[in-house]
Design brief:
The chain is an alpha/beta fold. It has helices at 5-11, 51-66, 91-95, 115-129, 145-155, 170-180, 191-194, 201-204, 221-231, 244-256, 295-300, 305-326; strands at residues 13-23, 26-36, 39-43, 76-78, 81-83, 103-107, 134-138, 160-164, 187-189, 210-213, 235-237, 285-287. The protein has two domains: 5-69 and 296-326, 2-Layer Sandwich (Enolase-like, domain 1); 76-294, TIM Barrel (Alpha-Beta Barrel), CATH 3.20.20.120. The N and C termini lie close together (11 Å).
């Protein structure tokens, strides 16, 4: 059941969260929040996504706000530090925003940067975390197979936990996985799951050793859990640069997984200068409890009238798209 649009609009708040550093091309993260019978939820597809893709994110928000969620099997979630594509000299300071985190995800393959920049950044993370720290790198599908193989060779001396979405397509991931298997560096799939019409294709093709899953892009916790079960691969739950409200949905997904062998990418609240609630890591983990946004923060972080109208119009279009699917 999809609630009427008026029910969503009744509590809708549009916020704009400033960031410490530019991340994924974003300097201010906008989101629309609303409250349902089960609590607050977030609708925040990136601005470049079309209404069809955005409607799936809305389905996830409605699911979280209106429906009872799967029972948790853990109350805290270990999380990784997230290092944007910054200069290596900034790495140590950034890691201090993630107290107790034993794992770091490092962005690589940034447009306008070189592999040498990536190597320097990863080296700085290893120097700061020491030999016991875990390092994973994320290329967001920016490399071709040859570039990815070359990069993995260049980075392998820093003891990578895995390389996330090194190439854009499933066949490329499968090819790369064969090429680097002898080095013992796993390949993780993110965009090949959350942006695919067939999120299980990567598992069927043997193109990844683990999956990175996100609650909003996959239509909600229940659907994400179904994908995990069908794929039969280990998973990492990550955020889509969510506010604290969206992070609580990600944490609820991670809490409901039968097994969770990796730290999750749910510590991204530390990338923001301000947020609607505090969901920053404490001792390397976050709570799986549901977040209630602070009224003062909602007022303080309110988006401009122009951006609020943009988001409300997007909400209406996505609601129409979602309702059309249900007919």
């Amino acid at each position: 059941m999809i609630p009427p649009l008026a029910d969503l609009l009744d509590s809708a708040r549009v916020v704009a969260l400033p960031m410490h550093s530019r991340f994924r091309g974003v300097e201010v993260r906008e989101a629309l929040l609303f409250e349902g019978p089960e609590g607050w939820a977030e609708f925040s597809p990136f601005t470049e996504y079309d209404d069809t893709e955005a409607a799936t994110w809305l389905a996830a928000a409605i699911d979280f706000a209106w429906r009872e969620q799967p029972a948790p099997v853990r109350d805290r979630i270990g999380v990784n530090a997230t290092i944007p594509a910054v200069d290596a000299a900034q790495v140590a300071e950034l890691l201090e925003r993630f107290p107790g985190c034993r794992t770091a995800k490092v962005k690589v393959a940034e447009p306008g940067q070189s592999l040498a920049d990536d190597v320097a950044r990863v080296r700085a993370v290893r120097d700061a975390m020491g030999p016991e720290g875990r390092i994973r790198v994320d290329a967001n599908g920016a490399w071709n197979v040859d570039e990815a193989e070359h990069a993995v060779h260049a980075l392998c001396e820093y003891d990578l936990e895995y390389v996330e979405q090194p190439c854009a397509t499933v066949p490329e991931l499968a090819d790369l996985r064969k090429r680097v298997k002898y080095m013992g560096i796993p390949v993780a799939a993110d965009e090949s799951v959350r942006k695919s019409s067939d999120p299980l294709a990567v598992a069927r093709a043997g193109a990844a050793d683990l999956l990175v899953i996100k609650a909003q892009p996959l239509g909600g916790i229940t659907h994400a859990l179904q994908i995990v079960t069908a794929a039969g691969l280990p998973v990492v739950v990550s955020s889509a640069l969510d506010t604290a409200v969206g992070l609580s949905q990600g944490a609820a997904l991670a809490a409901a997984l039968p097994t969770l062998d990796y730290d999750c990418g749910l510590g991204t609240a530390s990338l923001f200068l301000d947020d609607v609630a505090d969901r920053r890591p404490v001792a390397g983990s976050i709570s799986a409890d549901r977040v209630i946004p602070d009224d003062g923060a909602l007022d303080r972080l309110a988006a401009s009238d122009e951006r609020r109208e943009w988001w409300l119009a997007r909400l209406a279009r996505s609601h129409y798209e979602l309702s059309s699917r249900a007919r």
